[in-house]
Amino acid sequence: MVDRYYSKVYFQNLYNLFQRIQKKILRKHFLYKIRITPLNIEEKDKFFIPLDINILNKMYEVFKEELSEEKYMVLKSRLEENSSDKTFVVLDKDENIYGYYSMSFGNHFEKEMNFKIPKDEERAYLFDSYTFKSMRGNSVQLFAIKSRLKIAESKGYKFATCIVMDGNIASEKNVMKAGFEKAGTVNYYHFKKIKKTFIKEWD
């Protein structure tokens, strides 16, 4: 009985170690896709507007613990006229900032997963969605997803895609509430100097 118990503990610890090693080497993601249809967004108290330098500076000042200098510079680069990546923010009537939400209309490089998403005339790409911790619980993420789909529709896109890390339950719920469906896998392997991403889009 004792031997069985220690054997169970040993194999459980071994499995936990394997899981930790795997998570360091492999990051699993799912690709989500939606066919864009006309949307009516019923939100009277919040506004979805393009990020500008004044809002960015205010956001950096108010949420400095959540917005690093490196991230500030990334968001600032998307303000450039020639950038195909654009960022938007959610504000309320009192001009409180809830978070930032991005989408791409051209070639986009996913730095964290080390691969390029090529420009697609039919598909817009939604990414880099962040609601500040103190502003969560107001259905802001869902509002931001639908608002970007509305923008994509106005520009003539037929589809939109996004990538969600496996286990990010909150993001999964929001994209599925917006109508997205799982459409593939994106697995990122990182071992020492080796960085490789494998994308598989389901038929």
TrEMBL record:
Q: Domain of life here?
A: Bacteria
Alphabetical list of InterPro entries matching this protein: Acyl_CoA_acyltransferase (IPR016181), GNAT_dom (IPR000182)
Q: Report the residue ranges that make up the N-acetyltransferase domain in this protein.
A: 46-203
Q: Which Gene3D superfamilies match?
A: 3.40.630.30
State the name under which the record lists this protein.
N-acetyltransferase domain-containing protein
Species name: Acetoanaerobium pronyense
